[in-house]
Amino acid sequence: MTSSILPVYARAPLAFERGEGAWLVAEGGRRYLDFGSGIAVNALGHSHPHLVAALTEQGAKLWHISNLYQNPLGERLAKRLAEATFADVVFFSNSGAEALEASIKMARKYHAASGHPERNRIVTFEGAFHGRTLATIAAGGQRKYMEGFGPDMPGFDQVPFGDDAALKAAIGPQTAAILLEPIQGEGGVRPVPPERLRAIRALCDQHGLLLILDEVQCGVGRTGKLFAHEWAGIAPDIMAVAKGIGGGFPMGACLATAEAAKGMVPGTHGTTFGGNPLAMAVGNAVLDIVLAEGFLDHVRQTALLLKQRLAEIKDRHPAVVAEVRGEGLMIGLKLHVPNTDLVKAAEAEGLLVIGAGDNVARLLPPLTIGEEEVAEAIARLDRACAQVEAGMKAQTQAPAAKIVGAAA
Ligand code: PLP
Question: What is the pTM of this model?
Answer without folding.
Answer: 0.96
